[in-house]
Amino acid sequence: MSRAERQKWEGRYSVLEPSRERTAFNPSEWLKHWCQKVPTGRALDLAAGKGCNSIYLARLGHVVYATDIALESVRIIRQRACGAGLSIHAWTSDLDAVSFRIERFDLVADFFYLNRDLLKAIRARLKRGGLFIMETYLSMAASDEVPEYVLQPGELREVFLGYQVLGYEESSRGDSQERWGRARIAARRP
């Protein structure tokens, strides 16, 4: 990731946008739905942001590892965990250069961060029986000009062929003017 991109994320986490204040610290509903159905274990939260999913996983009893590109994000996660009496192992990393052992984790969560090489690495190296939970942007327009951080319809399901897909959804946000919908998956490695 470039220096400019890192600085963009540092700036984003140093300020809470008023329009997002209400939901900024709520965990994903998709994560909540699937995590209540799995035993606790080692969980990895990729591109963890302000740690809402990390905190939720720790409260469920998971041993949580959270990583993000922004040092400010890691500071917030550590501060929130400490304030809640929880322990979360948080560190900065550039997810464009995966340097951690995915096979150590029982659960990997990835919300609104898309790196296709990382998806392939997760698919190949997730612990046997491990659960992958993701929600990210989906292209709703038929166009070849889709940003690299947006999935094409069916793409996420295709990446996880051979996995036991517990849940999968592709949807628009209900606004006909919206360019990006959502793709969600919960899949277990056999």
Global geometry: globular
Strand order of the largest sheet: 3-2-1-4-5-7-6
Number of helices: 6
pLDDT average, as an integer? 85
Proportion of residues in β-strands: 15-25%
* Contiguous runs where pLDDT drops below 50 for at least 5 residues: 17-23
Describe the largest sheet: 7 strands, mixed
Rounded Rg: 16 Å
Helix content: 25-40%
Computed structural class: alpha/beta
| Pattern of helices and strands | HHEHEHEEHEHEE
> CA-to-CA gap between the ends?
32 Å
Describe the overall structure.
There is one protein chain. By secondary structure, this protein is an alpha/beta fold. Helix content is 29%, strand content 25%. The chain is built from 6 helices and 7 strands. It has a 7-stranded mixed beta sheet, with helices on one face. Strand 2 (63-68), helix 4 and strand 3 (88-92) form a beta-alpha-beta unit. Helix 1 (3-14) runs parallel beside helix 4 (71-83). It starts with a helix and ends with a strand. Mean pLDDT is 85; it is low at 17-23.
In short:
With 190 residues, this protein is α/β, with parallel strands linked by helices. The chain is 29% helix and 25% strand. The model is unreliable at 17-23 (pLDDT under 50).
List the keywords:
190 residues; alpha/beta; seven-stranded mixed sheet; 7 strands; 29% helix; globular
Summarize the topology.
Layout: H1 3-14, H2 29-35, E1 42-46, H3 52-59, E2 63-68, H4 71-83, E3 88-92, E4 107-111, H5 116-125, E5 131-139, H6 155-159, E6 164-171, E7 180-188
Parallel strand pairs: 1-2, 1-4, 2-3, 4-5
Antiparallel strand pairs: 5-7, 6-7
Helix pairs in contact: 1-4
